[in-house]
Amino acid sequence: MIKKILYSLLFSSIVVMALETGEQLPKNIQEQLKLEPNKVYVVDFFASWCKSCKKELPLVNKIYQEKVVEVVAVNVDKNREDGEALVKELNLTFPVVYDQDKSLVKSFDPLGFPAIYYIQNGKVLHVIFGAVDEIDKKITEDIKSIK
Amino acid sequence: MKKLLIMAIIASLFMGCSLVKEVKPWEKETLAKPIMQFGGLHPEVNKFESHVYFSKEASRGGSGVAGGGCGCN
User: Of A77, A78, A111, which has the smallest distance from its Cβ to B25's Cβ?
Assistant: First the structure.
């Protein structure tokens, strides 16, 4: 018995995995993001200190206004005011969730910023990490292929 | 049994090494500040200081400043 416990201790380790394509979002996270059923959402994680986010957000806002896709952005700034200032500066019109306790970003555990997740009915359809040139065109193409 | 126990103790000691906390992408706010960049807030000041140094000492190199050898300095 002790031998078994010792062996399990030797070969066990705690591994935290990032949310990947095909995985399901927990119900409480879906509620926090206010995701409606059947709609395809782009969940965009951003911060005011992330230069690539600043470049991408106006393009994401453009496709949101053109009704290409539903967008929910998640701000991960330490100070909510910094995130709000960026939203105001860039005139972003999509809904923004301020993740003050970092519960959302910890559940998604993205590998880099900006991080974009395509989500439908709580399921992750696709993930994009890092800066992408012409993200608006990329998202439009991806949404076409999803629909 | 004794061997296994020693192995478990050594492994648990090494497991301590993995407890160093990884900096997650959303925790890099401070690292992203301009003050954190190489050369501080004004890296151009460092460049200027290097220029003064190699002009006075008639030598350059070893400080990471690029030298072209065009004789235009």
Answer: A111
Chain B residue with minimum CA distance to A100: B26
Cα distance from A99 to chain B (closest Cα, Å)? 11
Q: For chain A, what's the residue count? A: 147
- Counting one residue from chain A and one from chain B, the pairs whose CB atoms sit within 8 A come to 39
Residues β-bridged to residue A72:
A43
Indicate the pTM of the whole model. 0.72
CATH architecture classification, A2-146? 3-Layer(aba) Sandwich (3.40)
A107 vs A13: CA distance, rounded Å: 19
List per-residue pLDDT tens for chain A, 147 residues long. Answer: 666 665 555 555 444 567 888 889 999 999 999 999 999 999 999 999 998 999 999 999 999 999 999 999 999 999 999 999 999 999 999 999 999 999 999 999 998 889 999 999 999 999 999 889 899 999 999 999 987
Residue A117 carries which DSSP code? E
